[in-house]
Protein backbone atom coordinates (compact mmCIF):
# COMPACT_ATOMS: atom_id res chain seq x y z
CA UNK A 1 0.00 0.00 0.00
CA UNK A 2 3.02 2.29 -0.02
CA UNK A 3 2.01 3.60 -3.42
CA UNK A 4 -1.24 4.95 -2.01
CA UNK A 5 0.47 6.64 0.94
CA UNK A 6 3.12 8.26 -1.25
CA UNK A 7 0.53 9.54 -3.73
CA UNK A 8 -1.65 10.92 -0.97
CA UNK A 9 1.23 12.69 0.74
CA UNK A 10 2.44 14.13 -2.55
CA UNK A 11 -1.00 15.49 -3.41
CA UNK A 12 -1.63 17.17 -0.06
CA UNK A 13 1.69 19.05 0.13
CA UNK A 14 1.18 22.80 -0.48
CA UNK A 15 4.10 25.03 -1.44
CA UNK A 16 4.66 28.23 0.48
CA UNK A 17 3.10 31.45 -0.92
CA UNK A 18 6.18 33.62 -1.39
CA UNK A 19 6.31 37.19 -2.65
CA UNK A 20 8.29 36.01 -5.68
CA UNK A 21 5.67 33.45 -6.67
CA UNK A 22 2.86 36.00 -6.34
CA UNK A 23 4.74 38.44 -8.56
CA UNK A 24 5.44 35.69 -11.09
CA UNK A 25 1.78 34.70 -11.13
CA UNK A 26 0.41 38.22 -11.51
CA UNK A 27 3.13 39.37 -13.88
CA UNK A 28 4.73 42.79 -14.16
CA UNK A 29 1.64 44.13 -15.94
CA UNK A 30 -0.15 44.32 -12.58
CA UNK A 31 2.66 44.67 -10.03
CA UNK A 32 6.26 45.69 -10.56
CA UNK A 33 9.15 45.83 -8.12
CA UNK A 34 10.09 49.45 -7.47
CA UNK A 35 12.72 48.72 -4.83
CA UNK A 36 13.81 45.39 -3.40
CA UNK A 37 15.66 44.55 -0.18
CA UNK A 38 17.35 41.69 -2.04
CA UNK A 39 15.55 38.37 -2.20
CA UNK A 40 11.80 38.12 -2.73
CA UNK A 41 11.28 34.74 -1.09
CA UNK A 42 9.59 36.21 1.98
CA UNK A 43 6.46 34.31 2.95
CA UNK A 44 3.23 36.24 2.40
CA UNK A 45 0.60 35.71 5.09
CA UNK A 46 -2.16 38.12 4.18
CA UNK A 47 -3.34 41.33 2.48
CA UNK A 48 -4.03 44.52 4.47
CA UNK A 49 -5.25 47.98 3.48
CA UNK A 50 -3.64 51.13 4.90
CA UNK A 51 -6.00 53.49 6.69
CA UNK A 52 -4.40 56.74 7.96
CA UNK A 53 -7.16 57.05 10.61
CA UNK A 54 -6.37 53.67 12.22
CA UNK A 55 -3.31 52.46 14.07
CA UNK A 56 -1.25 50.27 11.74
CA UNK A 57 -0.74 46.78 13.14
CA UNK A 58 0.65 44.77 10.23
CA UNK A 59 1.33 41.11 11.08
CA UNK A 60 4.51 39.36 10.00
CA UNK A 61 4.54 38.62 6.26
CA UNK A 62 1.57 40.85 5.45
CA UNK A 63 1.33 42.84 2.22
CA UNK A 64 0.20 46.42 2.84
CA UNK A 65 -1.82 48.23 0.16
CA UNK A 66 -0.86 51.90 0.44
CA UNK A 67 -4.05 53.49 -0.87
CA UNK A 68 -3.47 57.19 -1.56
CA UNK A 69 0.20 57.00 -0.56
CA UNK A 70 2.62 59.01 -2.70
CA UNK A 71 5.90 60.88 -2.31
CA UNK A 72 9.20 59.58 -0.98
CA UNK A 73 8.69 60.93 2.56
CA UNK A 74 5.27 59.29 3.00
CA UNK A 75 6.58 56.01 1.53
CA UNK A 76 9.54 55.98 3.94
CA UNK A 77 7.26 56.56 6.95
CA UNK A 78 4.99 53.72 5.88
CA UNK A 79 7.91 51.36 5.23
CA UNK A 80 9.10 52.00 8.79
CA UNK A 81 5.61 51.35 10.18
CA UNK A 82 5.25 48.19 8.09
CA UNK A 83 8.69 46.68 8.77
CA UNK A 84 7.10 43.40 9.93
CA UNK A 85 5.47 42.94 6.57
CA UNK A 86 6.67 41.46 3.30
CA UNK A 87 5.75 44.25 0.91
CA UNK A 88 4.23 47.70 0.44
CA UNK A 89 2.17 48.42 -2.67
CA UNK A 90 1.65 51.97 -3.97
CA UNK A 91 0.28 53.28 -7.24
CA UNK A 92 2.71 53.98 -10.09
CA UNK A 93 4.73 56.09 -10.73
CA UNK A 94 6.53 55.27 -7.49
CA UNK A 95 8.76 57.98 -6.01
CA UNK A 96 12.01 56.07 -5.43
CA UNK A 97 15.09 57.98 -4.30
CA UNK A 98 18.12 57.17 -2.15
CA UNK A 99 16.10 57.61 1.07
CA UNK A 100 13.48 55.11 -0.12
CA UNK A 101 16.08 52.58 -1.26
CA UNK A 102 17.88 52.85 2.08
CA UNK A 103 14.63 52.38 4.01
CA UNK A 104 13.74 49.31 1.92
CA UNK A 105 17.13 47.76 2.74
CA UNK A 106 16.79 48.71 6.43
CA UNK A 107 13.29 47.29 6.90
CA UNK A 108 13.49 44.37 4.47
CA UNK A 109 10.09 45.35 3.03
CA UNK A 110 9.81 45.23 -0.77
CA UNK A 111 8.28 48.30 -2.44
CA UNK A 112 5.91 47.40 -5.27
CA UNK A 113 4.23 49.59 -7.89
CA UNK A 114 0.64 48.95 -8.97
CA UNK A 115 -0.33 49.95 -12.50
CA UNK A 116 -2.60 52.99 -12.54
CA UNK A 117 -5.08 51.17 -14.76
CA UNK A 118 -5.77 48.61 -12.00
CA UNK A 119 -8.05 49.29 -9.04
CA UNK A 120 -7.22 48.67 -5.40
CA UNK A 121 -10.25 46.40 -5.02
CA UNK A 122 -8.99 44.37 -7.96
CA UNK A 123 -5.48 43.83 -6.62
CA UNK A 124 -6.84 43.05 -3.15
CA UNK A 125 -9.17 40.41 -4.58
CA UNK A 126 -6.44 38.91 -6.76
CA UNK A 127 -3.91 38.68 -3.93
CA UNK A 128 -6.44 37.17 -1.54
CA UNK A 129 -7.51 34.65 -4.17
CA UNK A 130 -3.92 33.58 -4.75
CA UNK A 131 -3.24 33.23 -1.05
CA UNK A 132 -6.47 31.35 -0.49
CA UNK A 133 -5.62 28.73 -3.06
CA UNK A 134 -2.27 27.93 -1.41
CA UNK A 135 -1.22 26.41 -4.72
CA UNK A 136 1.79 28.47 -5.77
CA UNK A 137 4.79 26.39 -6.81
CA UNK A 138 8.33 27.35 -5.96
CA UNK A 139 10.33 29.34 -8.51
CA UNK A 140 11.91 27.18 -11.18
CA UNK A 141 9.60 24.22 -10.54
CA UNK A 142 6.88 23.03 -12.85
CA UNK A 143 3.45 22.48 -11.32
CA UNK A 144 3.36 19.01 -9.75
CA UNK A 145 -0.36 18.57 -10.34
CA UNK A 146 -0.68 18.71 -14.12
CA UNK A 147 -4.15 17.37 -14.87
CA UNK A 148 -3.00 14.83 -17.45
CA UNK A 149 -0.31 13.56 -15.08
CA UNK A 150 -2.91 13.31 -12.35
CA UNK A 151 -5.26 11.42 -14.64
CA UNK A 152 -2.53 8.92 -15.55
CA UNK A 153 -1.45 8.50 -11.92
CA UNK A 154 -5.04 7.90 -10.89
CA UNK A 155 -5.50 5.47 -13.77
CA UNK A 156 -2.61 3.40 -12.39
CA UNK A 157 -3.95 3.53 -8.83
CA UNK A 158 -7.53 2.62 -9.72
CA UNK A 159 -6.65 0.34 -12.63
CA UNK A 160 -9.24 2.19 -14.72
CA UNK A 161 -9.18 4.81 -17.49
CA UNK A 162 -9.93 8.30 -16.15
CA UNK A 163 -11.45 11.53 -17.42
CA UNK A 164 -11.50 14.88 -15.61
CA UNK A 165 -14.44 17.05 -16.65
CA UNK A 166 -15.83 20.52 -15.92
CA UNK A 167 -19.40 21.38 -14.93
CA UNK A 168 -20.47 21.33 -18.59
CA UNK A 169 -19.08 17.78 -19.05
CA UNK A 170 -16.23 19.02 -21.22
CA UNK A 171 -13.12 16.88 -20.92
CA UNK A 172 -10.26 18.82 -19.32
CA UNK A 173 -7.83 15.88 -19.16
CA UNK A 174 -7.81 12.12 -19.63
CA UNK A 175 -5.54 9.19 -18.90
CA UNK A 176 -4.21 6.48 -21.15
CA UNK A 177 -5.90 3.09 -21.62
CA UNK A 178 -9.10 4.68 -22.93
CA UNK A 179 -9.24 1.90 -25.53
CA UNK A 180 -10.01 -0.49 -22.67
CA UNK A 181 -13.28 1.31 -21.99
CA UNK A 182 -16.40 1.38 -24.18
CA UNK A 183 -17.39 3.29 -27.35
CA UNK A 184 -19.10 5.99 -25.25
CA UNK A 185 -15.89 6.80 -23.42
CA UNK A 186 -13.86 6.78 -26.64
CA UNK A 187 -16.36 9.20 -28.24
CA UNK A 188 -16.12 11.40 -25.15
CA UNK A 189 -12.32 11.60 -25.32
CA UNK A 190 -12.18 12.14 -29.06
CA UNK A 191 -14.77 14.92 -28.93
CA UNK A 192 -13.43 16.30 -25.62
CA UNK A 193 -17.09 16.47 -24.57
CA UNK A 194 -19.50 13.92 -23.10
CA UNK A 195 -22.06 13.15 -25.86
CA UNK A 196 -25.34 15.01 -25.36
CA UNK A 197 -27.40 11.81 -25.33
CA UNK A 198 -25.23 10.37 -22.57
CA UNK A 199 -25.46 13.60 -20.54
CA UNK A 200 -29.24 13.59 -20.92
CA UNK A 201 -29.49 9.98 -19.78
CA UNK A 202 -27.37 10.63 -16.67
CA UNK A 203 -29.37 13.76 -15.88
CA UNK A 204 -32.77 12.10 -16.31
CA UNK A 205 -31.70 9.22 -14.05
CA UNK A 206 -30.55 11.69 -11.38
CA UNK A 207 -26.89 10.67 -11.40
CA UNK A 208 -25.51 14.21 -11.65
CA UNK A 209 -27.58 15.23 -8.63
CA UNK A 210 -26.26 12.25 -6.64
CA UNK A 211 -22.66 12.99 -7.62
CA UNK A 212 -22.93 16.67 -6.66
CA UNK A 213 -24.71 15.92 -3.36
CA UNK A 214 -22.46 13.04 -2.27
CA UNK A 215 -19.11 13.94 -0.63
CA UNK A 216 -17.50 10.71 -1.84
CA UNK A 217 -17.41 8.53 -4.98
CA UNK A 218 -20.68 7.35 -6.56
CA UNK A 219 -20.91 3.97 -8.30
CA UNK A 220 -23.03 4.16 -11.49
CA UNK A 221 -24.13 0.82 -13.00
CA UNK A 222 -24.84 1.10 -16.73
CA UNK A 223 -26.56 -1.41 -18.97
CA UNK A 224 -24.91 -0.83 -22.34
CA UNK A 225 -21.40 0.19 -21.24
CA UNK A 226 -18.93 -0.26 -18.41
CA UNK A 227 -20.01 0.98 -14.99
CA UNK A 228 -18.63 4.31 -13.86
CA UNK A 229 -17.38 5.66 -10.57
CA UNK A 230 -17.60 9.45 -10.35
CA UNK A 231 -16.76 12.05 -7.72
CA UNK A 232 -17.46 15.77 -7.65
CA UNK A 233 -14.53 18.19 -7.59
CA UNK A 234 -15.34 20.86 -5.02
CA UNK A 235 -14.06 24.11 -3.60
CA UNK A 236 -16.16 24.56 -0.47
CA UNK A 237 -19.76 24.51 -1.62
CA UNK A 238 -18.87 25.23 -5.25
CA UNK A 239 -18.81 22.38 -7.77
CA UNK A 240 -15.85 22.82 -10.13
CA UNK A 241 -16.16 19.60 -12.10
CA UNK A 242 -15.91 15.84 -11.67
CA UNK A 243 -13.63 12.82 -12.10
CA UNK A 244 -14.90 9.71 -13.91
CA UNK A 245 -13.43 6.20 -13.89
CA UNK A 246 -14.64 3.44 -16.23
CA UNK A 247 -14.58 0.39 -13.94
CA UNK A 248 -15.70 -3.24 -13.97
CA UNK A 249 -16.70 -3.40 -10.30
CA UNK A 250 -17.09 -1.06 -7.30
CA UNK A 251 -13.87 0.38 -5.90
CA UNK A 252 -12.21 -0.91 -2.77
CA UNK A 253 -11.96 1.42 0.24
CA UNK A 254 -8.30 2.13 -0.48
CA UNK A 255 -9.06 3.11 -4.05
CA UNK A 256 -11.98 5.25 -2.93
CA UNK A 257 -9.56 7.18 -0.69
CA UNK A 258 -7.19 7.64 -3.61
CA UNK A 259 -10.05 9.05 -5.67
CA UNK A 260 -11.10 11.38 -2.83
CA UNK A 261 -7.52 12.66 -2.52
CA UNK A 262 -7.31 13.12 -6.28
CA UNK A 263 -10.48 15.23 -6.24
CA UNK A 264 -8.87 17.57 -3.70
CA UNK A 265 -5.75 18.14 -5.75
CA UNK A 266 -7.75 18.52 -8.98
CA UNK A 267 -9.79 21.19 -7.19
CA UNK A 268 -6.58 23.04 -6.33
CA UNK A 269 -5.38 22.78 -9.90
CA UNK A 270 -8.68 24.07 -11.34
CA UNK A 271 -8.71 26.94 -8.86
CA UNK A 272 -5.13 27.79 -9.75
CA UNK A 273 -6.00 27.77 -13.45
CA UNK A 274 -9.05 29.90 -12.83
CA UNK A 275 -7.18 32.43 -10.70
CA UNK A 276 -4.49 32.74 -13.36
CA UNK A 277 -7.07 33.12 -16.13
CA UNK A 278 -9.19 35.49 -14.03
CA UNK A 279 -6.12 37.57 -13.23
CA UNK A 280 -5.32 38.05 -16.90
CA UNK A 281 -8.93 38.56 -17.88
CA UNK A 282 -9.68 41.03 -15.12
CA UNK A 283 -6.57 43.00 -15.89
CA UNK A 284 -7.31 42.98 -19.61
CA UNK A 285 -10.91 44.02 -18.93
CA UNK A 286 -9.77 46.85 -16.66
CA UNK A 287 -7.14 48.03 -19.12
CA UNK A 288 -9.56 47.90 -22.04
CA UNK A 289 -12.20 49.73 -19.97
CA UNK A 290 -9.63 52.45 -19.34
CA UNK A 291 -8.92 52.67 -23.08
CA UNK A 292 -12.65 52.81 -23.86
CA UNK A 293 -13.15 55.67 -21.41
CA UNK A 294 -10.55 57.69 -23.33
CA UNK A 295 -9.34 59.59 -20.26
CA UNK A 296 -5.88 60.62 -19.13
CA UNK A 297 -4.85 57.01 -18.38
CA UNK A 298 -5.97 55.66 -21.78
CA UNK A 299 -2.53 55.98 -23.36
CA UNK A 300 -0.82 54.02 -20.58
CA UNK A 301 -3.52 51.34 -20.65
CA UNK A 302 -3.26 51.07 -24.44
CA UNK A 303 0.50 50.69 -24.12
CA UNK A 304 0.15 47.89 -21.58
CA UNK A 305 -2.43 46.14 -23.74
CA UNK A 306 -0.28 46.62 -26.81
CA UNK A 307 -3.16 48.11 -28.81
CA UNK A 308 -2.96 50.85 -31.40
CA UNK A 309 -3.72 54.42 -30.36
CA UNK A 310 -4.99 55.82 -33.67
CA UNK A 311 -7.73 55.03 -36.20
CA UNK A 312 -9.75 52.62 -34.07
CA UNK A 313 -13.27 51.21 -34.33
CA UNK A 314 -14.98 49.77 -31.25
CA UNK A 315 -17.09 46.62 -31.54
CA UNK A 316 -19.67 45.78 -28.84
CA UNK A 317 -20.79 42.13 -29.00
CA UNK A 318 -23.39 40.47 -26.81
CA UNK A 319 -24.95 37.03 -26.68
CA UNK A 320 -28.66 37.17 -27.42
CA UNK A 321 -29.64 34.05 -25.49
CA UNK A 322 -28.58 34.17 -21.84
CA UNK A 323 -28.97 30.81 -20.11
CA UNK A 324 -30.83 30.22 -16.86
CA UNK A 325 -27.77 28.88 -15.05
CA UNK A 326 -25.69 31.94 -14.09
CA UNK A 327 -22.38 30.08 -14.04
CA UNK A 328 -23.05 28.48 -17.42
CA UNK A 329 -24.12 31.84 -18.85
CA UNK A 330 -20.91 33.50 -17.62
CA UNK A 331 -18.85 30.66 -19.07
CA UNK A 332 -20.58 31.05 -22.45
CA UNK A 333 -19.93 34.80 -22.45
CA UNK A 334 -16.27 34.27 -21.65
CA UNK A 335 -15.81 31.66 -24.40
CA UNK A 336 -17.56 34.02 -26.81
CA UNK A 337 -15.21 36.85 -25.83
CA UNK A 338 -12.17 34.59 -26.18
CA UNK A 339 -13.30 33.72 -29.70
CA UNK A 340 -13.75 37.42 -30.52
CA UNK A 341 -10.26 38.22 -29.18
CA UNK A 342 -8.79 35.47 -31.35
CA UNK A 343 -10.67 36.72 -34.42
CA UNK A 344 -9.66 40.40 -34.16
CA UNK A 345 -6.13 39.45 -33.10
CA UNK A 346 -5.72 37.45 -36.30
CA UNK A 347 -6.80 40.51 -38.32
CA UNK A 348 -4.52 42.99 -36.58
CA UNK A 349 -1.76 42.32 -34.01
CA UNK A 350 -2.64 45.51 -32.12
CA UNK A 351 -6.31 44.64 -31.63
CA UNK A 352 -7.70 43.61 -28.24
CA UNK A 353 -10.94 42.29 -26.77
CA UNK A 354 -12.24 41.80 -23.24
CA UNK A 355 -15.49 41.05 -21.43
CA UNK A 356 -16.88 44.07 -19.58
CA UNK A 357 -20.05 43.10 -17.78
CA UNK A 358 -22.12 41.09 -20.24
CA UNK A 359 -20.67 42.81 -23.33
CA UNK A 360 -17.51 41.73 -25.16
CA UNK A 361 -15.74 44.83 -26.46
CA UNK A 362 -13.07 44.80 -29.14
CA UNK A 363 -10.81 47.66 -30.22
CA UNK A 364 -9.90 47.15 -33.86
CA UNK A 365 -7.23 49.28 -35.60
CA UNK A 366 -8.21 50.29 -39.14
CA UNK A 367 -6.11 51.30 -42.14
CA UNK A 368 -7.06 54.62 -43.74
CA UNK A 369 -9.55 53.99 -46.52
CA UNK A 370 -12.48 56.31 -45.93
CA UNK A 371 -14.72 53.27 -45.31
CA UNK A 372 -13.35 52.14 -41.96
CA UNK A 373 -16.75 51.60 -40.33
CA UNK A 374 -17.96 49.53 -43.28
CA UNK A 375 -14.83 47.37 -43.07
CA UNK A 376 -15.33 46.93 -39.31
CA UNK A 377 -18.91 45.80 -39.96
CA UNK A 378 -17.60 43.19 -42.40
CA UNK A 379 -15.14 41.96 -39.76
CA UNK A 380 -17.99 41.60 -37.28
CA UNK A 381 -20.18 39.81 -39.82
CA UNK A 382 -17.34 37.42 -40.62
CA UNK A 383 -16.96 36.65 -36.91
CA UNK A 384 -20.66 35.97 -36.41
CA UNK A 385 -20.76 33.71 -39.45
CA UNK A 386 -18.01 31.61 -37.86
CA UNK A 387 -19.43 31.35 -34.35
CA UNK A 388 -23.13 31.56 -35.26
CA UNK A 389 -23.87 27.85 -34.77
CA UNK A 390 -22.43 27.99 -31.23
CA UNK A 391 -23.13 31.56 -30.13
CA UNK A 392 -26.28 33.52 -30.95
CA UNK A 393 -25.18 37.15 -30.74
CA UNK A 394 -25.45 40.71 -32.03
CA UNK A 395 -22.64 43.20 -32.64
CA UNK A 396 -22.75 46.98 -32.71
CA UNK A 397 -19.97 48.89 -34.48
CA UNK A 398 -18.94 52.44 -33.57
CA UNK A 399 -17.70 55.18 -35.84
CA UNK A 400 -13.98 55.59 -36.47
CA UNK A 401 -11.97 57.14 -33.63
CA UNK A 402 -9.04 59.13 -34.98
CA UNK A 403 -7.18 58.74 -31.66
CA UNK A 404 -7.66 57.56 -28.08
CA UNK A 405 -9.48 60.76 -27.22
CA UNK A 406 -12.34 59.71 -29.52
CA UNK A 407 -12.52 56.07 -28.45
CA UNK A 408 -15.16 56.82 -25.79
CA UNK A 409 -17.44 58.17 -28.53
CA UNK A 410 -16.87 55.09 -30.68
CA UNK A 411 -17.70 52.88 -27.70
CA UNK A 412 -20.93 54.84 -27.08
CA UNK A 413 -21.78 54.43 -30.77
CA UNK A 414 -21.22 50.68 -30.56
CA UNK A 415 -23.37 50.40 -27.42
CA UNK A 416 -26.20 52.34 -29.06
CA UNK A 417 -26.00 50.25 -32.23
CA UNK A 418 -26.18 47.09 -30.12
CA UNK A 419 -29.20 48.46 -28.30
CA UNK A 420 -30.98 49.15 -31.57
CA UNK A 421 -30.53 45.49 -32.54
CA UNK A 422 -31.87 44.37 -29.15
CA UNK A 423 -34.89 46.68 -29.54
CA UNK A 424 -35.63 45.06 -32.90
CA UNK A 425 -35.68 41.66 -31.24
CA UNK A 426 -33.20 40.18 -33.73
CA UNK A 427 -30.11 38.03 -33.27
CA UNK A 428 -27.11 37.17 -35.38
CA UNK A 429 -27.02 40.72 -36.75
CA UNK A 430 -24.39 43.46 -37.08
CA UNK A 431 -25.18 47.18 -37.15
CA UNK A 432 -22.86 50.09 -37.84
CA UNK A 433 -23.78 53.29 -36.03
CA UNK A 434 -24.05 55.29 -39.25
CA UNK A 435 -26.77 52.90 -40.44
CA UNK A 436 -28.88 53.00 -37.28
CA UNK A 437 -28.10 56.42 -35.81
CA UNK A 438 -31.67 57.73 -36.15
CA UNK A 439 -33.13 54.70 -34.37
CA UNK A 440 -30.49 55.17 -31.70
CA UNK A 441 -31.50 58.83 -31.31
CA UNK A 442 -35.15 57.83 -30.90
CA UNK A 443 -34.20 55.35 -28.17
CA UNK A 444 -32.23 58.06 -26.38
CA UNK A 445 -35.17 60.42 -26.72
CA UNK A 446 -37.36 57.72 -25.17
CA UNK A 447 -34.90 57.45 -22.27
CA UNK A 448 -35.07 61.21 -21.75
CA UNK A 449 -38.86 61.17 -21.78
CA UNK A 450 -38.94 58.30 -19.26
CA UNK A 451 -36.38 59.99 -17.00
CA UNK A 452 -38.44 63.19 -16.95
CA UNK A 453 -41.71 61.21 -16.59
CA UNK A 454 -43.02 62.71 -19.82
CA UNK A 455 -46.39 61.49 -21.19
CA UNK A 456 -48.13 61.89 -24.57
CA UNK A 457 -49.72 65.27 -25.21
CA UNK A 458 -51.96 66.97 -27.77
CA UNK A 459 -53.90 65.01 -30.42
CA UNK A 460 -52.16 61.72 -29.67
CA UNK A 461 -53.01 61.94 -25.98
CA UNK A 462 -56.67 62.55 -26.83
CA UNK A 463 -56.71 59.49 -29.10
CA UNK A 464 -55.21 57.24 -26.44
CA UNK A 465 -57.64 58.50 -23.82
CA UNK A 466 -60.62 57.94 -26.14
CA UNK A 467 -59.46 54.39 -26.95
CA UNK A 468 -59.06 53.61 -23.25
CA UNK A 469 -62.53 54.94 -22.39
CA UNK A 470 -64.44 53.43 -25.33
CA UNK A 471 -62.47 50.28 -26.21
CA UNK A 472 -61.72 51.52 -29.72
CA UNK A 473 -58.55 51.14 -31.82
CA UNK A 474 -58.19 54.64 -33.28
CA UNK A 475 -54.50 54.92 -32.30
CA UNK A 476 -53.82 51.68 -34.20
CA UNK A 477 -55.74 53.11 -37.15
CA UNK A 478 -53.54 56.22 -37.14
CA UNK A 479 -50.42 54.05 -36.91
CA UNK A 480 -51.45 51.93 -39.88
CA UNK A 481 -52.21 55.08 -41.93
CA UNK A 482 -48.85 56.67 -41.16
CA UNK A 483 -46.97 53.41 -41.72
CA UNK A 484 -48.60 53.09 -45.14
CA UNK A 485 -47.68 56.65 -46.20
CA UNK A 486 -51.35 57.59 -46.43
CA UNK A 487 -52.31 54.67 -48.71
CA UNK A 488 -55.80 53.87 -47.36
CA UNK A 489 -56.13 50.52 -49.12
CA UNK A 490 -52.77 49.27 -47.80
CA UNK A 491 -53.53 50.57 -44.30
CA UNK A 492 -56.98 48.93 -44.29
CA UNK A 493 -55.43 45.62 -45.30
CA UNK A 494 -52.88 45.93 -42.51
CA UNK A 495 -55.60 46.17 -39.85
CA UNK A 496 -57.90 43.70 -41.68
CA UNK A 497 -60.88 45.98 -42.33
CA UNK A 498 -62.65 47.23 -45.46
CA UNK A 499 -61.22 50.43 -46.93
CA UNK A 500 -64.56 52.27 -46.37
CA UNK A 501 -64.52 51.24 -42.70
CA UNK A 502 -60.96 52.48 -42.47
CA UNK A 503 -61.92 55.85 -44.01
CA UNK A 504 -64.71 56.19 -41.47
CA UNK A 505 -62.29 55.49 -38.59
CA UNK A 506 -59.84 57.97 -40.05
CA UNK A 507 -62.50 60.70 -40.05
CA UNK A 508 -63.47 59.82 -36.47
CA UNK A 509 -59.91 60.01 -35.20
CA UNK A 510 -59.35 63.43 -36.78
CA UNK A 511 -62.59 64.70 -35.24
CA UNK A 512 -61.75 63.36 -31.79
CA UNK A 513 -58.07 64.27 -31.71
CA UNK A 514 -58.06 67.45 -33.78
CA UNK A 515 -55.09 66.07 -35.77
CA UNK A 516 -54.59 67.68 -39.19
CA UNK A 517 -53.33 64.82 -41.39
CA UNK A 518 -52.58 67.28 -44.18
CA UNK A 519 -49.97 69.02 -42.00
CA UNK A 520 -46.55 67.29 -42.35
CA UNK A 521 -45.38 68.70 -39.00
CA UNK A 522 -48.45 67.28 -37.27
CA UNK A 523 -47.88 63.89 -38.91
CA UNK A 524 -44.22 63.89 -37.84
CA UNK A 525 -45.16 64.79 -34.25
CA UNK A 526 -47.69 61.94 -34.16
CA UNK A 527 -45.19 59.45 -35.59
CA UNK A 528 -42.52 60.43 -33.06
CA UNK A 529 -44.94 60.14 -30.16
CA UNK A 530 -45.97 56.70 -31.34
CA UNK A 531 -42.33 55.64 -31.53
CA UNK A 532 -41.41 57.09 -28.15
CA UNK A 533 -44.51 56.22 -26.11
CA UNK A 534 -45.89 53.27 -28.05
CA UNK A 535 -49.37 52.77 -29.42
CA UNK A 536 -50.82 52.03 -26.00
CA UNK A 537 -50.10 54.15 -22.95
Automatic annotation (TrEMBL):
It comes from the Bacteria. It holds the Pfam family GGDEF_2. Gene3D superfamilies: PucR C-terminal helix-turn-helix domain. Residues 297-420 form the CdaR GGDEF-like domain. Residues 474-532 form the PucR C-terminal helix-turn-helix domain. InterPro entries: CdaR-like_regulators (IPR051448), CdaR_GGDEF (IPR041522), PucR_C-HTH_dom (IPR025736), PucR_C-HTH_sf (IPR042070). Belongs to the CdaR family. This is Helix-turn-helix domain-containing protein.
Amino acid sequence: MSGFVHYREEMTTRPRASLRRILDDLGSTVLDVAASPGGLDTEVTGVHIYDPLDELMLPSGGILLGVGVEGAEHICDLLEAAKAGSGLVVKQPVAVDERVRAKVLETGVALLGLTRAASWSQVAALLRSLLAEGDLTEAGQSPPDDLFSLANALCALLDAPITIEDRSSRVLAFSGRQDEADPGRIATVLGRQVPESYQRMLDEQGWFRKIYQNPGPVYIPLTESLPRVAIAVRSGDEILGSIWAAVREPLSKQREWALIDAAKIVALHLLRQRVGADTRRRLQADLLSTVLEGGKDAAEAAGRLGVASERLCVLAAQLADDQIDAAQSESSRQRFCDALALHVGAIHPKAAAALVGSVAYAVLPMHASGEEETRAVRVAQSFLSRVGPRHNANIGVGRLAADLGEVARSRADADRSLRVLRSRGVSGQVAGYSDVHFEALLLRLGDLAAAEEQTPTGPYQRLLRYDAEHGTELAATLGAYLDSFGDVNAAAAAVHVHSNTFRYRLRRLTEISGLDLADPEARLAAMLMMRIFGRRH
